[in-house]
Specification:
This protein is an alpha/beta fold. The chain has three domains: 119 residues, 3-Layer(aba) Sandwich (Endonuclease, Chain A); 133 residues, 3-Layer(aba) Sandwich (Rossmann fold), CATH 3.40.50.300; 62 residues, Guanylate Kinase phosphate binding domain (2-Layer Sandwich), CATH 3.30.63.10. It is 46% helix and 19% strand. It is built from 13 helices and 15 strands. The strands form four sheets. Strands 8-13-7-14-15 form a five-stranded parallel sheet, sandwiched between helices. A hairpin with a 2-residue loop joins strand 11 and strand 12. Helix 11 packs antiparallel against helix 12. It starts with a strand and ends with a helix. It binds adenosine-5'-diphosphate (ADP) and guanosine-5'-monophosphate. The site of adenosine-5'-diphosphate (ADP) has 13 residues, from helix 7 and helix 11.
Length: 336
Amino acid sequence: MEKKYGYMTTDGSVYRVLLENAKENRKYATTAEAMLWEMLRRNNLGERFRRQHPIGNYIPDFVCLKKRLIIEVDGGYHHLRCQAIDDRERDNNLRKLGYTILRFSNEEVLHQIKHVIQIIKDNMERNNVNNSSQLNPCGTPLLWRGGGRLLIFSAPSGSGKSTIIGWLMKEHPELNLAFSISCTSRAPRGTEQNGVEYFFVTPDEFRERIARDEFLEYEEVYENRFYGTLKEQVERQREKGQNVMFDVDVKGGVNIKRHYADEALSIFIQPPSVEELRRRLVNRATDAPEVIEQRVNKAAYELTFAPQFDHVVVNDDLQKACQEVYRLVCDFVNHP
Ligand code: ADP
Ligand code: 5GP
């Protein structure tokens, strides 16, 4: 362990090995682990836990980052004495990082699952993030070291979100940013390519994906034009430790923020005026006049969502707006 980023962490190479191991471990769950995972999902706890997720130098079986709760299910080797000592050491180290550890034996999971789930639920209610961060004077778990966080950008269309996001990604590769590629039922415009700006699908395909519960959130932003954030896409990017940027409509932005709470930063990009918005959309020359009208007409309503965001950045002078966004993102990514 070294104190390199203002808090205890392992160096990057150890972290990569941990991630690789975690991926491998996930493929070979024991029967008890698989059962617990299934039951967590059935009890609507699945989304709150990650499986085999590196924390410090360890890879616990299940982790809830927000509640700082770890669940370990004993494998057969755990009855060996040396392993028991390792477990104690491991628990102590994880406790120092502010985590609560719940241990269950295979038998408990397989034969008393209701009881096990109840204990987990009780702990999810009892654990408090604010308290646990006080318990954690030297910082945060590894994945929060500039990786795996969420940056939400919303605004009326034409405010300059895409321009600012593009600038940030180009000028600041050190922020380890990845763009969340949404799915949409609108047609590609200009030079847009499938799998780059969006995954383009037909309205029927979009509805099928809704039915298969593939979206973290989705909105019919304009009539018959759906846009949605794919769960799998976001998780894959986060697992790589990337900070994921979302360009979503105002409702989507509020929903993603609600879902991820402190793990997400939400920024509302505000145009100087609705008239300027119209001018920009006309100059952008990517939409038909009636589509521009549709977008402008919705703007006044969308502007009322601004107070629900963590920050509002007025995009009048583009350079200034970019710098302001950069400062906000830097602060958030570097100071968990
Ligand atoms: P959004 O992604 O919010 O729909 P864009 O980033 O596509 O908006 O910006 C809309 C248009 O406005 C683009 O042509 C862009 O070049 C232009 N633009 C962005 N910011 C400014 C600004 N501060 N001043 C003038 N034009 C701008
Ligand atoms: P555009 O057609 O200009 O690319 O996008 C129209 C609107 O849809 C923009 O406000 C954009 O932010 C929003 N949008 C894009 N992807 C998503 C998404 O996955 N979810 C939601 N809710 N809105 C999205």
